[in-house]
């Protein structure tokens, strides 16, 4: 759609403004939306990119009094109270209400495309130092993380603190009850099953929180010689398979609220309880978050007794798919590796490893929220692509 203006006129007794573009296409803008989004200094604060107009001062039935082309790049509107507004053609074009234009801007803002994978995953690798000091590499990292769900950063120092640096690179880390970062190693009287040498089945971290962390970082500082392999699986890919081949199980897992619990002491004392559906769906029925951690699934279960066995059967179908050879990918972290992954999508686990008199395996972990990661991704994109 061209951003050159050809013609502008009111429609529907002034409740809409019709814009005709130079290429012959057209857009219809509701008058109430135009008035609500007046860009003049009285209605909009440019330094904050925020609306100053109070909603109580907006007439939801407003119509345009007059509309005209200011030039081929701008339209002007006069309202019944003689307030005047101007709208740049490029600004209007970007906010066109057509289905195609709306889909385009949503894709640009939220990058919803997913590349699904199974055991055939080609794990992307980017040097840690490049991500830290090169905007193009950092942009590639975050774009791939959003699309694929997992990226391996290589060559970090084999000491604690690298994740703090990575947190500063994206903005800031997510503080939880286990601290700003946490040490995954065999511990006496472990307050988390991860702090043992045992096998960890596929799980997402922290479904016990109302808003689980969106991104997880695991930095390998020390690796055991035997065992300790990491395994990952694309939860969105598997949930799609479940929906196709076991629709009843999918319906149960996407509609049943499961109780989660985590009680103990770490960064501070905590007693956390939450309800989550194992497969969270958006308004279109697409999976947007997996909330599955068998270790912290509560013995309290707030459903009728007759629905319990069908739930377990549905979860067994899902768990079997997660663990099938075609879906899971296994690898072993080396000291200096940092695996970064989408905690809402990618389930992870590990093989057991031998216990000993001293620590033989040490990972440092941290979380970040998708809001922070996506913010940095957009800022990097603007710099790398010279958008601003």
UniProtKB/TrEMBL annotation:
EC numbers, comma separated: 1.14.11.1
Q: Which residues form the TauD/TfdA-like domain?
A: 117-367
Q: In which pathway does it act?
A: Amine and polyamine biosynthesis; carnitine biosynthesis
Which branch of life, at top level?
Eukaryota
Give the top-level enzyme category.
oxidoreductase
Q: Which GO terms describe its cellular component?
A: mitochondrion
User: GO terms for molecular function, please?
Assistant: gamma-butyrobetaine dioxygenase activity; iron ion binding
Cite the Pfam families for this sequence. Answer: GBBH-like_N, TauD
Which residues belong to any copy of the Gamma-butyrobetaine hydroxylase-like N-terminal domain? 14-92
State the reactions this protein catalyses. 4-(trimethylamino)butanoate + 2-oxoglutarate + O2 = carnitine + succinate + CO2
Q: Which GO terms describe its biological process?
A: carnitine biosynthetic process
Listed A to Z, the keywords are: Carnitine biosynthesis, Dioxygenase, Iron, Metal-binding, Oxidoreductase
SUPFAM superfamilies given in the database record: Clavaminate synthase-like
**What InterPro entries is this protein classified in?**
AlphaKG_dependent_hydroxylases, GBBH-like, GBBH-like_N, GBBH-like_N_sf, TauD-like_sf, TauD/TfdA-like
Q: State the Gene3D superfamilies in the record.
A: 3.30.2020.30, Clavaminate synthase-like
Keyword Membrane set for record: no
Q: Which cofactor does it need?
A: Fe(2+); L-ascorbate
Please state which protein family the record places this protein in: Belongs to the gamma-BBH/TMLD family.
Protein's job: Catalyzes the formation of L-carnitine from gamma-butyrobetaine.
What name goes with this protein?
A: gamma-butyrobetaine dioxygenase
Organism, as annotated: Serilophus lunatus
Q: What is the lineage of its organism?
A: Eukaryota, Metazoa, Chordata, Craniata, Vertebrata
Per the record, the gene is Bbox1
């Amino acid at each position: 759609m061209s951003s050159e203006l050809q013609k502008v006129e009111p429609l529907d007794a002034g409740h809409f403004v019709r814009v005709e573009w130079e290429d012959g296409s057209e857009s219809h803008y509701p008058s109430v939306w135009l008035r609500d989004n007046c860009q003049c200094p009285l209605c909009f604060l440019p330094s904050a990119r925020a609306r100053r107009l109070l909603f109580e001062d907006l007439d939801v039935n407003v119509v345009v009094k007059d509309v005209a082309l200011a030039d081929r790049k701008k339209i002007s509107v006069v309202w019944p109270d003689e307030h005047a507004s101007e709208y740049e053609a490029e600004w209007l074009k970007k906010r066109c209400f057509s289905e195609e234009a709306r889909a385009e801007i949503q894709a640009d803002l939220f990058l919803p495309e997913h590349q699904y994978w199974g055991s055939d995953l080609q794990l992307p690798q980017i040097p840690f130092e490049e991500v830290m000091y090169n905007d193009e590499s950092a942009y590639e990292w975050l774009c791939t993380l959003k699309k694929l769900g997992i990226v391996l950063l290589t060559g970090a120092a084999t000491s604690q603190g690298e994740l703090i640096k990575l947190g500063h690179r994206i903005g800031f880390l997510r503080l939880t009850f286990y601290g700003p970062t946490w040490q995954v190693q065999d511990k006496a009287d472990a307050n988390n099953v991860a702090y043992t040498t045992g096998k960890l089945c596929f799980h997402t971290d922290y479904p016990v929180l109302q808003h689980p962390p969106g991104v997880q970082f695991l930095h390998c500082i020390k690796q055991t010689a035997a065992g300790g392999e990491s395994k990952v699986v694309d939860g969105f890919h598997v949930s799609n398979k479940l929906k196709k081949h076991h629709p009843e199980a999918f319906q149960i897992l996407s509609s049943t609220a499961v109780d989660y619990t985590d009680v103990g002491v770490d960064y501070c004392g905590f007693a956390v309880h939450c309800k989550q559906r194992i497969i969270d769906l958006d308004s279109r029925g697409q999976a947007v978050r997996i909330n599955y951690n068998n270790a912290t699934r509560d013995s309290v279960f707030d459903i009728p007794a007759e629905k319990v066995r069908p739930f377990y059967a549905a979860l067994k179908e899902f768990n079997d798919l997660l663990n099938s050879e075609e879906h899971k990918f296994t690898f072993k972290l080396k000291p200096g590796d940092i695996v970064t992954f989408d905690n809402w999508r990618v389930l992870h686990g590990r093989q057991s490893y031998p216990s000993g008199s001293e620590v033989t395996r040490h990972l440092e972990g941290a979380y970040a929220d998708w809001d922070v990661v996506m913010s940095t991704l957009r800022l990097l994109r603007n710099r790398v692509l010279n958008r601003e």
